[in-house]
């Protein structure tokens, strides 16, 4: 079946550097994408979202890029901080009334001092 | 800030027993969801609920599972006869509406279910 997947299971970056987390999706019917952050023992926390009619969206220190041609999503974190250490999931939402999320496998981001 | 709350945080049960996981979604939200996450794996959709009925369910959500909104605030997931493989984190989520800008699903902290 169709699924959302992540390219890298782990990513280590130096504090202050920029982080890029990638995600591939395969459901062409998805029109909405979300990045979530999950810290140990907690539920997924919303970071940023993007609709399929956009290719870039910026938040505070985060940017999401969407390339529909190759079905690729990325999350850029500027000036990564120790508090950014977590597992990051991309999720896609297909059109339809229920709008349930399909999550990718997750990338563990570790920020090194 | 409004949040989704789940109780208990950890539930330990014997195989074959019934469990009820409880959630209080954000008060003005209309769409409710249950997801599960087996240790070390990705979050998986179980069921969505809107207007007092199930709107979508996954293959995981078999006859052993049921959901209910018994009153105006609680949203529960019942597993009738737990199996070892039901051990996982169970997350409740809610969404305000289908309008643009209101699609974000907010998650609770989860209930860790351990089936022995």
Q: Could you walk me through the main structural features you see in this protein, from its secondary elements to its overall organization?
A:
The complex is a heterodimer of chains A (113) and B (116). By secondary structure, chain A is mostly beta strands. Chain A has one domain: Immunoglobulins (Immunoglobulin-like). Chain A contains no helices and 11 strands. Chain A has strands at 4-6, 10-14, 19-25, 30-38, 45-51, 56-58, 62-67, 72-77, 86-94, 102-103, 107-112. In chain A, strands 2, 4, 5, 9, 10 and 11 form a 6-stranded mixed β-sheet that branches. In chain A, strands 1-3-8-7-6 form a 5-stranded antiparallel β-sheet, with no helix packed on it. In chain A, a hairpin with a 7-residue loop joins strand 9 (86-94) and strand 10. Chain A is globular and about 45 Å long. In chain A, 36% of the residues are buried. Chain B has 116 residues and is mostly beta strands. Chain B has one domain (5-115): Immunoglobulin-like (Sandwich). Helices cover 0% and strands 49% of the residues of chain B. Chain B is built from no helices and 11 strands. Chain B has strands at 5-7, 10-13, 19-24, 31-37, 44-50, 53-57, 65-68, 75-79, 88-95, 105-107, 111-115. In chain B, the strands form 2 sheets. In chain B, strands 2, 4, 5, 6, 9, 10 and 11 form a 7-stranded mixed β-sheet that branches. Chain B has a 4-stranded antiparallel β-sheet with strand order 1-3-8-7, with no helix packed on it. In chain B, strand 7 (65-68) and strand 8 (75-79) form a beta hairpin. Chain B is globular, with a radius of gyration of 14 Å. The termini of chain B are far apart. The A-B interface holds A 32, 34, 36, 41-46, 49, 51, 89, 91, 93, 96-106 and B 4, 31, 33, 35, 41-45, 48, 50, 55-56, 58, 91, 93, 95, 98, 100, 103-110.
What's the short story on this structure?
The complex is a heterodimer of chains A (113) and B (116). With 113 residues, chain A is mainly beta.
Main β-sheet of chain A, in a few words? 6 strands, mixed
Radius of gyration computed on alpha carbons of chain A: 13 Å
CATH superfamily of chain B: Immunoglobulins
Could you say what the CATH topology of chain A is called? Immunoglobulin-like
